[in-house]
Hints:
The structure is a single chain. The chain folds into 2 domains: 85-168, SRP54, nucleotide-binding domain (Four Helix Bundle (Hemerythrin (Met), subunit A)); 187-379, Rossmann fold, CATH 3.40.50. The protein is α/β, with parallel strands linked by helices. Strands 3-2-4-1-5-6-7-8 form an 8-stranded mixed beta sheet, sandwiched between helices. Helices cover 47% and strands 11% of the residues. It starts with a helix and ends with a helix. Residues 21-34 and 36-55 have low confidence and may be disordered.
Amino acid sequence: MVYLYIALAVVVLAIVLGAALVVPRRRSGRLQVPPPPPRIGGEAEGAASSVGTAVQVPPEAPVATEAPSAPAVPELDVPEPTAGRLLRLRARLARSQSSLGRGLLSVLSRDKLDDDAWDEVEEALLTADVGLGATTEIVDRLRTRTKVLGTRSQGELRALLAEELVAALQPDLDRTLHSTPTSDRPAVVMVVGVNGTGKTTTCGKLARVLVADGRTVLLGAADTFRAAAADQLATWGSRVGAETVRGPEGGDPASVAFDAVKQGTEREVDTVLIDTAGRLHTKVGLMDELGKVKRVVERQGPVDETLLVLDATTGQNGLTQARVFTEVVDVTGIVLTKLDGTAKGGIVISVQRELGVPVKLIGLGEGADDLAPFDPEQFVDALLG
């Protein structure tokens, strides 16, 4: 019995010792899990991680960006001074008009100036659209003077003819372009005319004339019916640094004109130049609308200048146009265009004689600076060649 107890004790002791040896081995065989990698950026930068050592992350290199380039400033045109411009353009006028001058001088220099000769002089003047009344006066005065003075040399005859033509052009008329601002408002110039006379182009060239004479200009695109008119005017203005006030296509032209004068006053420019829509002088409704444009503008002050653009190639029909426009908007000056392409420059005489309205500017080509202040002496000199 004693031996049995001893055997059981030995077995229990063996079991206890075996268990003590097995447990450490299992513990030593566990997998050691490595600490998680530190997060990059944010909280991981420069901070100690809960596991392991903090990782210093270098800052990102700045991305090189190009500085936005300033918009290119367009180079502005510098129009040539208007003083003496007609003299510089006389060759263009002489090319188309000299046939009239040569014809008159060849007749007047004949040995015998009989009735047939004077009839030829009269016909030449009428063909040039001088008009019947002015032609009769010029011929009568020439006949008297050549008879009294006994003039025969071509130089003397040319001088006499030049004097009579200059007198017929009424050199004493005021041809000043009223574009000088007053103390509290700019000068306002309206440009009117029929379709096809080159009115918008003339308006753009007139802006160059004003800038060349030292004026600051604001353009009003009151021709809202022709789609390209406002764009065309704005293009002309941008070349010399003149801004354009415009409205919606088909909008009220009087509203555009009013806004142009208002903005011109606020910006303190010298001259506001308003381009109106071309219209036939026979269309009563359109002419009434033109009168409305002027009345609306005059709510802010008087219109200083109303220029009528006439095509010299239209001849005596231009005189009819001038009468109607003068009645509606009180035209103060004529701009005669396309004189380089016609021998009918006598319309200058007939328009001034019939209306008492001076020709202030003439167009002598398609160039940007081919609009010149009208000078009777220089005009006649080019006319006679």
